[in-house]
Structures are given as C-alpha cells and as structure tokens.
Write a structure and sequence with these properties.
With 287 residues, the chain is α/β, with parallel strands linked by helices. It contains 12 helices and 10 strands.
Length: 287
C-alpha cells in the first residue's frame, strides 16, 4: 500500500493505463449514466473504448456532444448495424488498444467509484477477474434518476434504494457498501462458480488474444461464458469478486433474445468445455 493509502498492484502499477471496453447500442440514456460513473472513479488512469454495434446517427451525435465536455478519454469503435454482432465489435475494440489489461463493461452498467482501482489491485497473471451477478435497477426508478444521483453514488446506498421502492435491496447492502479488505474477505467467504461475465470482468490482453477473443459466431447468450471456458482451457483461471467489483444494472427488456439460439449455444459451451477447445469457430486475425 502506498503512503497515501492507495492500493497498488504489483502487476499493474498506478502509472499504467487500462482499457475499459464498453459495449453499447442505441441506448444513450443508459450509456451516459455508465460514463458518468466512470467520471467518478478514484483511479482515472484508463481509456474508454466504446464498442458500438451500429447505433444510429442520433446516438452518435449525442455521444459526440457529450464527449466534447467530458474529461474522459473516449475512442468510438463503430460498425454497421447488421444483426447482433456484439462479439465482433468488442474484438475490434480490443485490437484498437495497446493497453495490457482490458476491463469489460456493458453500456447499461453503473459502477462504484472504486471499480477501476479494485480491478487494478486484483489483477494477477494467468487470471481473469469477474464481478459476478449484478443488482438490477428497475425501469421505474431509472426514469427519475439524475446525473447527481450517479455522481453521488446513490445507487450504492441501499437505504436510498429502499426509499425509492426496492424493498428487497437490504439483502444486498454488504455487496453495495463493502470496500477494500472487507470486500476481499467477503469475496473469499462467498464461493461461487467462476465464469467470465461480459458486463463486468477484466483480463490480460495477451490472454484474450491467446484464445482468439470472443467467438463472432455467437450471438446473444453465452458469448462471454465461452471466452471464460476457452481461457480456462489454456490455464487462465477466473476469480469472482462480487463485493470488490460492485456495479448495478439498469434493467431493460431483451427483445433480441432468441431462446432457440441460446439453447444451441449452451450445447456448444458444454462441448467446448468437454473437448478443451481453445480457438473460436472463427479465426481472429491480427492483434
């Protein structure tokens, strides 16, 4: 620990920039809240790469205007809107950065102010870190959220959330409020199956490309778990940190979810684990 109380990882020094890869598509309201939460980070040594799966011109213009007034360093990686191609645009974003460590976040996630610092402190060789399951914020509450609510981290105050109509939130109070050693202890005492969770995970860029990145033949359902399985097949293990890597999800419908596709991809995941598949069904060219 540094003299100023900052936790410093032996593997990711505070002077080294990290890459935050955010997947997004035509939902500016949620993305703005995700970006606002990144503006609150205690560790500001990171670059944001927006992996945009084909958002329209109105979204792009809102982003352009917002970026002009933000202190965040943001790179916008975009491709044409053709079906659900989240895996492909995330691979493009990963190729666009030279940062050694990649943090993955969905554009409808709001993170606690120590999220980047915690990822930096937890990073270890031949490991990926995942925040695990997340806490959903219902649409009714989202409608009245203000930028100040995000900046003041009220979404991580269980009493405030209860007053706003989420009575069951008390059971999550430790996940929302635990920091530092206390959070790491609770992570250790709460064993869960470790799997890569694309909305809140981190890994080394080298490990990501060793297994060929996300499988672009996958659509919604399992693309992140598949990456974790293939990394495990080369000895890169995952560790879950649901208390240290606190984030909440701005819940929404999923009209693009195809149950039959999801079923087929779950079958594929079981096979890849069984046969120790490493490379995806497509080949990611270039690093």
């Amino acid at each position: 620990m540094a003299d100023n109380g900052e936790v410093v990882s032996a593997h990711l020094p505070s002077s080294e920039s990290l890459a935050v890869l955010i997947s997004c598509y035509n939902n500016w309201t949620s993305l703005e809240r995700a970006l606002l939460s990144l503006e609150t980070q205690t560790d500001r040594n990171f670059v944001v790469f927006l992996a945009d799966d084909g958002s329209g011109e109105a979204f792009v213009e809102q982003l352009r205007s917002w970026r002009a007034g933000s202190a965040l360093e943001i790179e916008h990686i975009w491709h044409e809107d053709i079906d659900f191609r989240k895996a492909e645009i995330l691979n493009k974003a990963a190729r666009a950065t030279e940062c050694r460590y990649l943090l993955f976040l969905d554009g409808d996630m709001v993170v606690r102010r120590d999220w980047v610092a915690a990822h930096r402190a937890l990073a270890r060789p031949r490991r990926y870190m995942t925040g695990g399951s997340h806490i959903n914020i219902p649409a009714a509450l989202q409608e009245c959220l203000t930028p100040e609510d995000i900046r003041e981290q009220r979404l991580f105050d269980w009493r405030w959330l209860r007053e706003k109509g989420i009575p069951e939130i008390r059971r999550y109070r430790r996940r929302l409020a635990s920091h530092g050693f206390c959070a790491r202890l609770l992570d250790f005492l709460t064993p869960r199956r470790d799997s890569f969770v694309g909305c809140n995970s981190g890994c080394w860029r080298e490990d990501f490309f060793t297994v060929g990145g996300f499988d672009e033949t996958f659509v919604y359902g399992g693309v992140d778990r598949d990456l974790g399985i293939r990394m495990a097949n080369v000895g890169v293990r995952g560790t879950r940190h649901r208390y240290s890597l606190a984030a909440v999800h701005l819940d929404h419908p999923r009209p693009w979810r195809d149950p039959e596709r999801v079923r087929r991809q779950k079958t594929a995941l079981k096979k890849r684990k069984r046969v120790h598949q490493v490379r995806p069904d497509h080949e990611l060219i270039g690093k």
